[in-house]
Design brief:
The chain is α+β, with helices and mostly antiparallel strands and 193 residues long. It folds into two domains: 107 residues; 81 residues, 2-Layer Sandwich (Gyrase A, domain 2). The protein has four helices and six strands; from the N terminus they run ββαααββαββ. Strand 3 and strand 4 form a beta hairpin. The N and C termini lie far apart (97 Å).
């Protein structure tokens, strides 16, 4: 308790509380602050624990879903006569898939379109003897005979200008009987679509 008497220019102040009382007040205030901080920390810890439990439950749900998918795929593979536990089974499956993909690529390749594109690009005096499409690379190898070197040059220019054949390279040429030119050309083929 403090008493202030003001009768002059300087007020008179006195404090009748003992030093121990002042220290006790400070200690009590500090204890209250520590208690409040402990309660806040406890609340944050409980919130984090609840959040961790929710996250763990979600992860467990994901693990269970993956296990169910794995079991379903295992059953489906066994129904197809494939044992996923056998050594080399995955490599065998990869080979089978590659074979099926190759069949699908061959089936999707249109010989009619290729032949029509070649017919439009090949000039007179050129005889194509063989056509070998390379499905994976999108290339085509052409072997044939030209009446002259100028006719062979016209073929290469016509293939490039067609827009369907690019990167036209003369792999081999040789003069055959009757001054005809045998050739082998490699080019890239852009399929329609």
């Amino acid at each position: 308790m403090a008493v202030v008497i003001s009768k002059g220019p300087e007020p008179f102040c006195t404090n009748f509380a003992s030093g121990a009382y002042e220290r006790a007040r400070l200690i009590n205030a500090a204890l209250y602050a520590v208690a409040v901080a402990a309660l806040v920390l406890a609340g944050v810890t409980v919130w984090w624990a609840a959040d961790d439990r929710r996250e763990a439950a979600a992860m467990q749900g994901n693990v269970d879903r993956v296990r169910q998918q794995s079991a379903r795929l295992r059953d489906e593979l066994q129904r197809l006569g494939f044992s996923p536990d056998a050594p080399g089974a995955v490599a065998d499956l990869g080979k089978r898939v590659a074979g099926v993909n190759q069949i699908l690529e061959q089936k999707a390749f249109s010989w009619t379109t290729l032949l029509n594109d070649l017919e439009a690009a090949v000039p007179r005096n050129i005889s194509i003897g063989s056509i070998r499409p390379e499905l994976k690379s999108g290339g085509v190898a052409l072997d044939g005979t030209a009446l002259t070197l100028q006719d062979l040059a016209k073929l290469m220019i016509a293939l490039e200008q067609s827009g369907r054949f690019t990167d036209v390279f003369l792999q081999r040429q040789r003069t055959a009987e009757h001054e005809r030119v045998e050739f082998s050309i490699q080019c890239s083929y852009r399929r329609a679509g």
